[in-house]
Design a protein that fits this description.
This protein has about 130 residues and is of the alpha+beta class. It is built from two helices and seven strands, in the order ααβββββββ. It is globular.
Amino acid sequence: MRSLVCLPIAAALVLLLSGSAPARTAIYDIQYTTDPSGNSPMVGQSVTISGIVTAIFVSGYVVAEEAGPWHAIYVYSTRDGPKVGDEIGLSGTVFESGGMTRISSVTSYTRLSQGNALTPWPVNAPGSAMRWSP
């Protein structure tokens, strides 16, 4: 009986130590580009990200890893039901649509924590007196 209990634990340790979990990709690395088109250098690639849900829309939600340019991304998915303030991890595919980089085809989703406070940060529009803060 003891060996039956140890076998699943040993298998879990082998998976954990083998690095089978996908490496996390920084949202900044997905979003930042020097390409004049503005397209992500990672279009078509499968990525794993984590961050805080900062907004919910009809067709998806926004995940931010930190404040600042290129640190948030739209996730085009209505499944899993995240709430604003949830810290999540997910895997999906990077794509461009309507001049916006997004993640779609979510293959894994994990709620890491919930109820996280959002810190607003100002956004200045060049050549304008407008300021926006989420």
